[in-house]
Amino acid sequence: LNRRLTEFGTTIFAEMSALALRTGSINLGQGFPDTDGPQEVREAAVRALRDGRGNQYPPGPGIPELRTAVAAHQQRRYGLTYDPDTEVLVTAGATEAIAAALLALVEPGDEVIAFEPYYDSYAACIAMAGGTRVPVTLRPHFGESASFRLDLDELRDAVTDRTRLLLINTPHNPTGTVLTRAELAAIAELAVERDLLVVTDEVYEHLVFDDAEHVPLAAFPGMRERTVTIGSAGKTFSFTGWKVGWITSAPGLVTAVRSAKQFLTYVASGPFQYAVAEALALPDSYFTAFRDDLEAKRDLLVAGLTEAGFGVFRPTGTYFVTTDIRPLGERDGFAFCRGLPERAGVVAIPNAVFYDHREAGAPFVRFAFCKRTEVLQEAVKRLGAL
Ligand code: PMP
Ligand code: GLN
Fold it and tell me: Is the CB of 33 under 6 A from ligand 2?
């Protein structure tokens, strides 16, 4: 293994899902729903397979139906206009979109700023692109509505003459933080002022709760032409195994990302692209019901974890809740998560894996709530007996 990758080992999600299987534990670690997405969307995939649509290589940029549906979705939700032919690219999940964007846009030695804790593929992809990651730590704020927040001054201070790109993620995995309109406006101003590219991972765009609102970064002045926005059917429609994602951006950036993508997978998920094109056209009621269901599950898990004695950062987005284990008399999230299957029959993720400053993430542990209600109830019961 080359030096760029040796520090990364095996992704925590594989390790923890294997641990859940081995110990027969409830898996609240890796973020995947235990209920598949809508029946009519599955039927659409079956129809495509049967009718022979997408069984051979689809077109490099993605099938026209899906590119059109992605553009229509950005228009309908956010009033953003993208040309399906030149400004949309279908990828093998958001994971490939992240990789292809970084491989296409980062020169060796360029600095890439990402929020810490960060989704684990960011660090690995920055490294594969030969870039240098510069983490800006989201700081825990305790008290009534505990949450992790961005310090805009820290972000501004992190920008140097070598900074090429801001890698943004909102709603944010693993903290559940949704950046506010004011924070996004400040990020946009900084990007314009310092002439930075922005890659924004918005895969949880539909999972925002309470009064939180997802605002795409591309909607701010001066951003459309410098921003690559990433979406995923895995998150929005509960088909994580289908690996259908996409980017929307200006033509030059889409062409650049496609240049890298064509040598990664070239294309993927042929029949599923047809099904996702139909899914994106589902009525608003689908998206609202999906969000409401997860909001209720968030409430259930947050209440249970609070009752069990965890410090809880109530998420306003994503399907993850980050907890603080110090009120339980614990300090080390790694040790806690390794012992949890034995102690309680539950698997969780130690947030330290998402940090360069491991000690800053040590006491935090992430639980996923994209699970059936009875599964969450059982997990809460087990954790209550800790
Ligand atoms: N970005 C974030 C923030 C994620 O949480 C995930 C999946 N957990 C991905 C990207 C990857 O998405 P996909 O499954 O579409 O590759
Ligand atoms: N994105 C999911 C999570 O954060 C897992 C994705 C993966 O397994 N690579 O849990």
Answer: no
- Do 347 and 206 share a structural domain? no
**To test ligand 2's pocket by mutation, which of 12, 13, 34, 230 has the most ligand atoms within 8 angstroms of CB?**
13
Nearest-CA residue for atom 9 of ligand 2:
13
Looking at the 3D structure of the chain, how many domains does it have? 2
Residue 230 burial (10 A CB sphere; 0-12, 13-18, 19+): buried
Gap from CA of 376 to ligand 1 centroid (Å): 22
Q: Which amino acid is at 386?
A: L
Cα–Cα distance between 114 and 26 in angstroms, integer?
Answer: 31
Residue 31 CB–ligand 2 contact under 6 Å: yes
Tens digits of per-residue pLDDT, 105-133? Answer: 999 999 999 999 999 999 999 999 999 99
Residue 353 resides in a domain:
yes
Give mean pLDDT, residues 344-356.
97
User: Is the distance from the beta carbon of residue 95 to the nearest atom of ligand 1 less than 6 Å?
Assistant: yes
Which of 21, 32, 367 has most ligand 2 atoms within 8 Å of CB, for mutation? Answer: 32
State whether 271 and 329 are in the same domain.
no
Pair of tokens at residue 332: 């080390």
Same domain, 329 and 352: yes
In this prediction, residues 210-226 reach a mean pLDDT of: 98
Q: Vertex 173, ends 102 and 200: CA angle to 5°?
A: 35
**Residue whose CA is at the smallest distance from ligand 2 atom 1:** 31
| Per-residue pLDDT band at 85 (split at 50, 70, 90) | very high
Residue nearest to atom 4 of ligand 2 (CA): 31
Residue 1 lies in a domain: no
Atom 8 in ligand 1: which residue has the minimum CA distance?
31
247 is written with which tokens?
Answer: 């980017």
pLDDT tens string 70-82 = 999 999 999 999 9
Q: Both 269 and 302 in a single domain?
A: no
**Are β-strands 227-232 and 245-248 bridged in parallel, bridged antiparallel, or unpaired?**
antiparallel
240 and 346, same structural domain? no
* Residue 143 reports pLDDT greater than 90: no
pTM, whole model, 2 decimals? 0.97
